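Major facilitator superfamily (MFS) profile domain-containing protein
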Amino acid sequence: MKPEGKKFLNIIILGFSFMFLFTAFQTCGNIEQTVIKSFNSTEFHGSGYTSMSIIYGVLSAFSLVAPVVVTVIGPQLSMFFSGLMYSCYIAMFIYPYTWSFYAASVLVGLGAAVLWTAQGNVLTINSTDNTIGRNSGIFWAIFQLSVFFGNLYIYCAWHGHVHITDKDRQTVFISLTVISLVGCFLLFLIRKPDPEPAPSEASQALLQSEQTDSMDSTTSSPRTALCSQAVDAFVKACKIFVTKEMLLLSFSIAYTGLELTFYSGVYGTCIGAMAEFGHDAKSLIGISGICIGVGEILGGGVFGMLNKSSRFGRNPVVLLGFITHYVAFYLIFINIASDAPIAPEAGTDLPAYIKPSVQLALFCSFLLGLGDSCFNTQLLSIVGFMFRNNSAPAFAVFRFIQSIMAAVAFFYSNYLLLHWQLLILVVAGFFGSITFFMAETLAQSMRRESDYNTI
């Protein structure tokens, strides 16, 4: 197989691996609070919101150290063992205990930091400057199939169930555990890409420098060499964090963390709390998740291709995501009651600005997914391009910023009314878009300099 064909196949395998893994994990996250309520009166006294806070807190704390793991054991094994941690979390619900629930939450936080750092590294080394945008979009589209299949599975499995029995829970979580393990073992089908020849004098000099470093490392013990690589990976992550390019991108990355919390946790809760949606309000949460997934899949597939063909680079896609989210925020503001995020189990009776519409609510779900794919595909592309030689530390910084902002958003979502949460998203989205446009200008300058040096 040609080198380019092997790299493209690796991207496809990576996408399907993550699709299986997150079909299981995202479905678990969507239903865990409902499941917990079904047996919370017994010996189990855990909280889904507390679990998510632990996961994102550990993820953010460990993100800058994750490149050390990826450097020492390689991206493939890093993703495999991290995936097993996700599987442990899902399997815990078969026979849940409070201590194992929170212990597994810590494991997922650790695994997530390593998993996404390694994913960014694999995406980068299997792409070129010309294919990084396409590959980011294709990976994102395949990966987001997990949202569609997971919610559809739960809708079919639990449709018409008023109460979730132990048998219902165990059947679903055994199935989800098996699905997650399929995703883990698919990772072993990824093959190391063939190295590319150095086309310029600068590249040859870099290769000679790497060879010299390699010779120096062989003169020391293997343990010393690994320690040196680990420290180097951590130092690189810290240095990348304060570069001009990453500081500009940090506003966009922070926004994706805030809106991730909103569409994955808050908005579904709002729909389920709307008493005017009738007895089907809770089941609409799954349909909303499917609509979000459709938007993510459409955006990942289409915008990945637009990124390659547009002479304006990534800016048009991010601008479209900015406008799409603003439309969604306005429609949600007038269609959903302000106290919906913090309403009791019985729901809210407060009126919205218009008569609440189920169709409009689900359309907003689609817009949220579409806008999210705009931002994430282009961020994956630009980070992979700007930090090609240090992709693992760069994506570790990416996840650090995103996860810490998600943790902040999960915290304030327990207290703020809907209109205040939307205002935060509007302001963050504006600054995130402006700073992305500035970072893309720098990326275009880097591309022109690279093309000039290869002439």
